[in-house]
Specification:
Pfam families: Citrate_synt. Keywords: Acyltransferase, Transferase, Tricarboxylic acid cycle. GO terms for molecular function: citrate synthase activity. By secondary structure, the chain is mainly α. The strands form two sheets. A three-stranded antiparallel beta sheet has the order 1-2-3, with no helix packed on it. A three-stranded antiparallel beta sheet has the order 4-5-6. A hairpin with a 7-residue loop joins strand 2 and strand 3. Helix 6 packs antiparallel against helix 17, helix 7 crosses helix 8 and helix 8 packs antiparallel against helix 13. The mean pLDDT is 94. Bound molecules: carboxymethyl coenzyme *A. Carboxymethyl coenzyme *A (CMC) binds next to loops.
Length: 427
């Protein structure tokens, strides 16, 4: 293989393929011509497939590096705000003060949702999982913003980005309020993005919620750390749904559905449930044993990642924030004790070392969210609020690059052609 050329030989046939060089990361073999030669590539779960070209986020899983538009996640988490990160993801550069103020004002001024949408909630059972409600209501936004929306128009796409970014915390907080039978709390424009979300979650018409700056910062950090993560399952779902030119609110609803699973965004909820089940440090060995048992489907939630084969850089920041929050609230959470001991044991266990299973972002986020008073069934909803900007940035980039409908092929292993003989009596 020359530096920028590869040759694939199958029996007597050779196919020349270009090798593309990214700015960072692994080289990519361009196999687009293979289909016309009568061959497909087989890669279930896309472990070796680049599905698109992107300039938004870079991950080096072996070295624990995550960059958004080139900026390291550690710096963004400590030196920026979530809205600043949103601007960076969406437009590619850090905003000037003037650009930031304008962006913030626009996002803040569009947080209310159409009053008719509040009635949709009442069709759901009160005990519905909030992710089911979030998925349904976000999809329903397509019914409110469809006819005048031209996805090929960059201005329309920009307006869509603002709408989604602004309204997602409002819809998410409504999912919570509905589940506990409290009236919806309307957004407050003098609060920050994170502060406003906490206000909509915890204020009631009878009592103001005073936003604690340490908790507000922790919420903002959780949003930053979940903002984007390259071509993960939900982002790829949004791209796939959007590749047909579909309504973006419906595409984001598809992303929310994909995020819900325990192998993806549902892991934070599953991780907290696991820590509660482990309960005390003495029970940890039993759970480690189960995680290593091939005949047991149990996995240590919050451990392992498809891309990171090193410490998840987001987990490092999350760990610090977790300590800050517990200190501020003067909480001595026994779950944190279990989490830290579990981390220590797993990091020293040959099974986890060999398989490069390190704590991921969800390992600590559940403890922080619990300390903030957020119930565990809302954890993935919070992930969805944060990831909305990543989904929109990728959806937008896909449109900018020119739409090509996603249409994978398959390795067919079903029947050969055979004759159909019906055994059903016809009337
Ligand atoms: N506990 C025990 N064993 C594990 C774990 C775990 N958490 N994760 C992977 N393994 C083992 C797995 O059994 C397999 O062993 P073997 O090679 O002997 O069959 C090996 O490690 C490789 O696992 P895999 O499932 O083939 O790896 P994957 O890249 O397909 O899966 C993952 C990645 C995140 C789905 C998986 O590590 C997992 O299920 N982790 C727990 C769930 C979790 O915390 N998910 C959150 C991911 S971070 C948030 C996000 O980005 O959405």
């Amino acid at each position: 293989m020359a530096d920028n050329k590869a040759k694939l030989t199958i029996a007597e046939t050779s196919v020349d393929l270009d090798v593309l060089s990214p700015t960072l990361g692994s080289k990519v073999i361009d196999i687009r011509t293979l289909g016309s030669k009568g061959y497909y590539t087989y890669d279930p779960g896309f472990t070796s497939t680049a599905s698109c070209e992107s300039k938004i986020t870079f991950i080096d899983g072996d070295n624990g590096i995550l960059l958004h538009r080139g900026f390291p996640i550690g710096q963004l988490a400590t030196e920026s705000t979530y809205l600043e990160v949103c601007y960076i993801l969406l437009y590619g550069e850090a905003p000037t003060q003037e650009q930031y103020d304008k962006f913030k004002t626009t996002v803040t001024r569009h947080t209310m949702i159409h009053e008719q949408i509040t009635r949709l909630f009442h069709g759901f059972r009160r005990d519905s999982h909030p992710m089911a409600v979030l998925c349904g209501v976000t999809g329903a936004l397509a019914a409110f913003y469809h006819d005048a929306l031209d996805v090929s128009n960059p201005v329309h796409r920009d307006i869509t980005a603002y709408r989604l970014l602004s309204k997602m915390p409002t819809v998410a907080a409504m999912c919570y309020k509905y589940s506990i039978g409290q009236p919806f709390v309307y957004p407050k424009n003098d609060l920050s993005y994170a502060g406003n979300f906490l206000h909509m979650m915890f204020a009631t018409p009878c009592e103001e919620y005073v936003v604690n700056p340490v908790l507000e910062r922790a919420m903002d950090r959780i949003f930053i750390l979940h903002a984007d993560h390259e071509q993960n399952a939900s982002t790829s779902t949004v791209r796939t749904a959007g590749s047909s030119g579909a309504n973006p609110f419906a595409c984001i609803a598809a992303g929310i559905a994909s995020l819900w699973g325990p192998a993806h965004g549902g892991a934070n909820e599953a991780c907290l449930r696991m820590l509660e089940e482990i309960k005390t440090v003495e029970h940890i060995p039993e759970f480690i044993k189960r995680a290593k048992d091939k005949n047991d489907s149990f996995r240590l939630m919050g451990f392992g990642h498809r891309v990171y084969k090193n410490y998840d850089p987001r987990a490092t920041v999350m760990r610090e924030t977790c300590h800050e929050v517990l200190k501020e609230l003067n909480l001595n959470d026994s779950l944190l004790e279990v989490a830290m001991e579990l981390e220590r044991i797993a990091l020293n266990d040959p099974y986890f070392i060999e398989k490069k299973l390190y704590p991921n972002v969800d390992f600590y986020s559940g403890i922080i969210l619990k300390a903030l008073g957020i119930p565990s069934n809302m954890f993935t909803v919070i992930f969805a609020i944060a990831r909305t900007i990543g989904w929109i940035a990728h959806w937008n980039e896909m449109h900018e690059d020119g739409l090509k409908i996603a249409r994978p092929r398959q390795l067919y292993t079903g029947y050969d052609e055979r004759e159909f003989k019906s055994e059903i009596k016809k009337k």
